[in-house]
Design a protein that fits this description.
Elements (H helix, E strand, L loop, with lengths): L1 H6 L2 E5 L4 E5 L48 E4 L13 E4 L2 E4 L3 E7 L13 H19 L6 E8 L11 E7 L4 H17 L3 H12 L3 E4 L3 E4 L10 E5 L11 H21 L6 E6 L14 E5 L2 E4 L2 E2 L5 H4 L3 E2 L3 H9 L3
Parallel strand pairs: 2-16
Antiparallel strand pairs: 1-2, 3-6, 4-5, 6-8, 7-8, 7-12, 9-10, 10-11, 11-13, 12-13, 14-15
Helix pairs in contact: 2-5
The structure holds zinc ion.
Zinc ion binds next to loops.
């Protein structure tokens, strides 16, 4: 079984979304003709007078950032969702639309313009986690907000326009597609088995011990069996928790430690400030029990072979389904060796 998965094309099932990914391990053995060189990391100043996220600077809307010392959160000046838009729906034959309301915020992880999460101490990352918890509670308490999406886009390759360490929090009235799929899959499993889908998956992963990158007291960092991105990783709490507000103080720091470890390993992999999109999927804030939810954080990095060779989601992936060459097991082994 094991060798089949390392040698022959197959598809793997994503238990969280109910979708498949095509894996072609035999293709990873083909000689690589792309570039494979480390790019020089530009040194950024700790404070950039032209950065709209640095402390004390003025943003485009004229507001001045405070002289913040740790984490700073503000409402996005160019929010994709607004509280003031009217509630409406369109049901015109086959034309269907629904209004969507929400609140979008920006979270600066550190006042230091030169840093990324990989450069920050576990204690300082813990402060970011604390701010995420606070925002989840505050935003989720609004009647019209039923879901809070926390995410980070890092690196110009991911379309991130500002290198200042920051992430975003978009909150809205309905569940976005990815969350809706995971909500349904987890709910179906929980209703049938009376246990957490990810909790049971974690047991199997720890037993197999093939895709684990790192673990501490409370978290496992692994390359999921169904990973799409070459070096995709998932951070899963060992105990089932519906969302990040259910973490104890010790678990909050364990989570920060897990984030620190994976981001450091990523930077080492291709000797560059590793780009990625990361996000937390957790229970909706719709007032329902949501006992089927087991929150987790995912990292989707695009780099494939080096700092300058990225994976493209094109062709078959646009028209068929996601596809990868290097297996999840090989990716986990490489990342684990850099700890
Ligand atoms: Zn800055």
């Amino acid at each position: 079984m094991k060798t089949y998965l390392q040698d022959y094309s197959h598809k793997r099932f994503n238990i969280l979304t109910g979708e498949w990914v095509l894996v072609s391990p035999h293709r990873a053995k083909r000689p690589w003709q792309g570039q494979n060189e480390a790019i020089s990391n530009e040194q950024r100043p700790s404070h950039d007078p032209n950065c709209y996220l640095c402390a004390g600077n003025t943003r485009i809307n004229g507001e001045e950032n405070p002289a913040y010392e740790a984490v700073f959160v503000f409402t996005n000046d160019f929010a994709a969702l607004q509280t003031t838009s009217p509630v409406f729906s369109v049901n015109d034959g086959l034309f269907k639309a629904e209004s969507e309301q929400g609140i979008c915020k920006v979270i600066c992880f550190s006042p230091d313009h030169s840093k990324s999460l990989a450069d920050m101490s576990v204690v300082d990352i813990g402060k970011v986690v604390k701010a995420w918890q606070k925002e989840y509670i505050e935003l989720g308490s609004h009647d019209m907000i039923n879901y809070v999406q926390i995410f980070e886009n890092k690196g110009a390759i991911m379309g991130c326009s500002n290198p200042h360490p920051h992430g975003q929090i978009w909150s809205q009235s309905t569940l976005p597609n990815e969350v809706d799929k995971k909500d349904q899959q987890q709910n179906a499993y929980y209703s049938k088995n009376k246990s957490s889908l990810l909790g049971d998956y974690l047991k199997q992963e720890l037993e197999a011990n093939e895709r684990i990158i790192y673990q501490n007291n409370d978290f496992v960092v692994l390359v999921p069996f169904w990973a799409i991105w070459p070096f995709e990783a998932m951070l899963v709490p060992k105990k089932q928790k519906r969302n990040i507000t259910e973490l104890s103080e010790a678990e909050r720091l364990s989570f920060a430690d897990a984030i620190s470890k994976i981001t450091i390993v990523y930077d080492k992999l291709f000797e560059c400030s590793f780009p990625y999109s990361s996000g937390i999927h957790q229970s909706p804030t719709d007032g329902k029990p949501n006992d089927h939810w087991h929150w987790h954080m995912s990292f989707y990095p695009p780099l494939l072979r080096s700092a300058t060779v990225k994976k493209f989601m094109v062709g078959y992936e646009m028209f068929g389904s996601p596809q990868r060459d290097i297996t999840a097991e090989q990716a986990a082994e490489r990342l684990r060796s850099l700890l």
